[in-house]
Amino acid sequence: MEQLALNYHRQYALPLVIIRPVMVYGPGSVYAWFYAFTLFAHKRAALTSGGRNKIHFISVHDVVSSAIHLAEYPQAAGEIYNICDEHPYTQREAITMMCRAMGVWLPPWSMPKKLLRALLKITFISRFMFGLTPEISDFYTDHFTFSNQKLKSTGFAYRYPALSNGLEKTVRWYKESGTLAVLEPLRMRRLVTRWSPSVVFMFSIIKIVQYLKRLGVRPFDDGWRHCTTAYLQTEQSKFVLVAMRLGLGSPEGVIKELAEFLSLPLTHWRLKISRFATRRVANKVFDIVQAVFNDNGTLDSIIPYLDRQATALSIDEALKAEAIRQIIAAYNATLNLPDKRRQLTLKKRIDAWLCNVPGAAQKQTGEYIERVLSSTFIRFEDMPPQDENYSRLEAPAFIRYKHPGWGIFNINCRLDRNAGEADLWIQCHHVAIDGVPLQELLTEWEKKIGKGEIKLPPLANRQAPKLQWCSSTEKNGIYWVSQLVDFRPLIDLAEGLSRKYPNTAKITSLRLLIWGLGNHPTFKKDAKFILPVDFPAYQDRERTVGLIVIRPSIYFNENKPEKGALEFLEEFDRQVRLGRQRLGETYELMESFALLPPLFWQITAVLMGNAVREYAGSIGVSSICQADLFVAPYTDIYCGFIAISNFLKTTEDGQAACQVNIKGPKEKVLVYLEAVMDVVEKGRVFSNPAGVPRL
After folding, report:
1. What is the C-alpha separation between 643 and 383, in angstroms, rounded?
2. Rounded mean pLDDT, 606-617
């Protein structure tokens, strides 16, 4: 390519200068020598042959300025220049400077050069085990020095004549831009603040899986998606969002609009249920089934509205009716079984009947039943009468009206036919879809056919919270409770602290809530909080949910409460920053989970629940800021889950409030709610609030 350019210069007098930069470093660099930063930060490479080979570097500023200088230097036309600084370093010298600037230790081992060259020829070992790429192979295997006398003879002056002059500025840019998150070494020990034999056992499993990943083993699923298959299988693990005041006044109108909503790509899923896991699989049809339940919760009838765009099933009406009767009978017979048995037992009962269907009709009937059980189920009821306490905002008792099969949505629709309004309470299975993406769809839906926002009742009119049972059996004892909470005092405190500490980590009301709950007597001793966070797509990784796992108590400082809070916020910020780049300890934990079968995590949850909670948290907190109302999910490994909707939802008297929902053991949920209200409304954010100035 260079020779071709020079030929054009000689033949057509094309003015050109060829420059040959060496190892380029500087602000903005995410290429070449940047890979060396990442390798040594993550302890995935070693010195070669004692690090004696010499390497030349050049700052990106000097690359640009030399190019401009030579372009303006008439005698440079048609010439070739090496672009390198004044002082080459040995590999050991360069890496020592790099590690010192990043605050990491120098690798003590050295690898023979011949061995490294052999490994570089085996791609899966060089790339996945050691992270080596062709861009930096010269750095490890050869001398990489050149003469800069020709460049200097033109009168060029270096801004950074040696690596030592520009390295610290480069690392500082990495820190300020967040790029250094890539360089921060994984320390899985950060996940653990209380060790025990079971925690050590799980830690050893995680480390083994990490080494498998270095050898090139990769999970089929995103780490979060895989975790949901094992831990989010029961009725209480489902969450609920709501679309209110939709301009729909009849069941037919709701079903028609719902069919269009279900055609969106995000909802193209159904469930595949097995003994130890519940997975999502693609679903190309958009079927809806209207369900009618009796007062005692038994299923009375179902009316399928199958997708007309799908391939028609050749099955006669009598056989369809009999299939529906079998589904209803199987549902009612298995109604009170535990969740992990109920749907599998239902399927066995229906399959036993299906075996008796004669001839070719058996396959078509089986497909018909599968489509019905994979449908979105919807139940209609009249809108409750309006009152000052807004019974309209009380969530339906979904535990009494379960989805019989493996569709991802179970919907309760409240209709006000006179006003032409519908409220859709949408219970969703977390294995298939997450809260924030679903809420975004619902928000767009409300904008399209909504009749205005629903206002919350005045805070002065709120009543004592009511417990609502939500577990599959009474033995589990899982309940939820909802209450209006005034978040404005906590929001004001967050804004005040942000003004007082403008150069620290981001200070938000949600983060202060976690800190305050950690200071509260209800949680202070043992609580380790887990926060699911929506992370957008990043590079080649899909949009996902990341986890922030943190124990506030390890940052407590009774003498300087705000200092401890700021250290807590820094760690919170670090986890968020790393998660967005698909890095960090919690992301690595979930990716490790994804390499192990769900059975393993089912067993550990039963036999080593405390160890699982040490890694995955014991109290869940989730906020969906666009949601009018949000009913929490729950897993058997948690001690409770707090769901927070829009912090500043308008009330009837022109004020603002937030609907907080808490799910957990019966004896805990009211205590947790009281703690939330203490922190949010009474300002009990620090352990000695009297000693903290109000901002």
Report:
1. 25
2. 87
Residues in CB range of 254: below 8 A, 6 or more apart: 246, 248, 378, 380, 413, 415, 422, 424
Of the pLDDT bands very low, low, confident and very high (cuts 50, 70, 90), residue 519 is confident
22-40: average pLDDT: 73
Residue 282 token pair:
């693609």
Encode burial over 464-478: b for 16+ CB neighbours within 10 A, e otherwise. Answer: ebeebebbbeeebeb
> What pLDDT does 167 receive?
84
Instruction: Tell me the range of 103-117, 199-213, 321-335, 603-617 where mean pLDDT is highest.
Output: 321-335
- The predicted structure's pLDDT at residue 659: 93
Nearest to 309 by CA among 285, 290, 292: 285
Q: Which amino acid is at 141?
A: T
Q: Where are the alpha helices (DSSP H) in 399-487?
A: 435-449
Q: What are phi and psi of 441, to 5 degrees?
A: -65, -45
Buried b (16+ CB within 10 A) or exposed e, 615-625: bbbbbbbbbbe
DSSP letters along 81-111, please? EEE--S--EEHHHHHHHHHHHHT-PPP--EE
The token duo for 417 is 């036919």
Distance CA 5, CA 670 (A): 77
* Structure token digits, residue 508: 């938000």
Residue 157 DSSP SS3: coil
The dihedrals phi and psi of 80, each to the nearest 5 degrees, come to -120, 135
- Six-digit token pair at 69? 């200088």
